[in-house]
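User: Predict structure, ligand acetoacetyl-coenzyme A.
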Amino acid sequence: MSDQKRTALVTGGNRGLGEAIAQALLDAGHEVIITHTPGNRKAADWVKGLAAQGIHLSAYGVDVSVYESVQELARKIHADGRQIDILVNNAGITRDATLRKLDKANWDLVLRTNLDSMFNVTKPFVEAMMERGWGRIINISSINGSKGQFGQTNYSAAKAGVHGFTMALAQEVARKGVTVNTVAPGYLATEMVAAVPEETLQRIVSGIPVGRLGEPAEIAALVTFIASDAAAFMTGSKVSMNGGQHMQ
Ligand code: CAA
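Assistant: Predicted complex:
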């Protein structure tokens, strides 16, 4: 039996992993809303380009690190008579530097964007999911939140925090038909990973047993499963997909 059509919100859904997740949820028959950083013309043009190809999704410029910005988004979505059934907290950034070189601004920016966003984006939508008795919240963490990474005290701390958030919220909403899970991808063929210095990246890839970077679509397929009715008994889990780079 195929799932009924749901409405999904994917933060940072305009590129990289978020784009692949948005695409996979569209392919699964869902309505998809994405957010991108405010004023991002490239993202707006991308959505127009998709519409020209007959692929329709709604896109909003939202700063997920700012609570009011997300509340404004929730007001617009609800004003259009829509409710979010599937929330994918994907938006995230890196500001890599060893702790000695990391400044307070880049500590705060990464923590606000990657961890505070869990509160900011989940809070306006979770209540209605519980009232309707169905919901899926999927939080994107990282291999580096599980094992730590040289040069990423900020990112590793935030991504480890993501799963703490998942486990606590999963307990609070389980009786109401809402599941909360973490997906922890490894190194993927995305712009974010391409920003890692070439030599460092080669060293990292040589430590991946599968011998290559992951494809965003591989993670997106996993997210789509977790978003389905078939995954109703799965909650509070952290699912890793990293080519064997970190086994737990
Ligand atoms: N372990 C131990 N020592 C290391 C090391 C490591 N992994 N990497 C570097 N070092 C050593 C260097 O050999 C060097 O030693 P010496 O001073 O004795 O020569 C010292 O540490 C300084 O290293 P760098 O020259 O690299 O320091 P830097 O300040 O120039 O660069 C850095 C630091 C920017 C963090 C750089 O190392 C880097 O970009 N690392 C990659 C971080 C990374 O993997 N980011 C992932 C981004 S993608 C992502 O996050 C998505 C996801 O979820 C997976």
